[in-house]
Each structure stands twice: as structure tokens, then as C-alpha cells.
Amino acid sequence: MSRKIYVGNLPYSVTDASLKSNFAEFGGVSSARVMMDRDTGQSKGFGFVEMTSVEAAQAAITALHGVSVDGRSIVVTLAKPREERTAPSTRSDTGYRASNRRDVGYGNGGFGGGRY
After folding, report:
1. Which residue of 9, 43, 64, 91 could cross-link 76, Cys pair, CB 3.0 to 4.6 Å?
2. The domain 4-78 belongs to what CATH superfamily?
3. Phi and psi at residue 50, in whole multiples of 5°?
């Protein structure tokens, strides 16, 4: 079991320090971070807390999930591992080639080689 906790639906007024202090009553907190928008500097409404023990993490999840903070019911669950992200691209490993698409290329009709 993980010691890292996801905290969602946070009010924008919550800071790293207030998040850490709220979770500290359930055990040691290694880190607490509210995710911020890099352009505006405003909170994204979620964050992550890493506890020092699995027992402390489970106690915090049990006690804080669904609690109302500034009128918002917060979501407190175990954090899922981050998935590898790939850049969106239309390029395949074989590259951009007309032979990859049957409807593109010279001799298939129309101006520019398309079927349309």
C-alpha cells in the first residue's frame, strides 16, 4: 500500500502549509503540495500529501474523505501511479509516407491525389 494521498475538490484558498497541518494530526507528513496553474499561479483544486507511514495514510483517508472544507466536500484517496505520457502525434514509427494511407498519393484521382 502506498503512503501517497490524492486530495481533490480543494477550495482555492488551501495552501501547502494548511494542507500539511490538516494531515499532520493523523501522523507524520513527508510532503504536502497543492498543484498550481503555471500561467495564473492559482490553485488547480487538487494536491498530494505523502505520509511517513501507511497506517497514517489510511487513517487520514478514512477520517478526511468527504469532509466539508469551505463548503466543498473534499475527495481523499490513495494516489494512483503516474502514467507515462506520450506526445500526441500522427507520425508512426514508419514515418510520414503515402503508402501508409490508401487514399493519398498520385494516381488515385483528383487534384492532389486524394479520392475526394
Report:
1. 64
2. RRM (RNA recognition motif) domain (3.30.70.330)
3. -115, 120
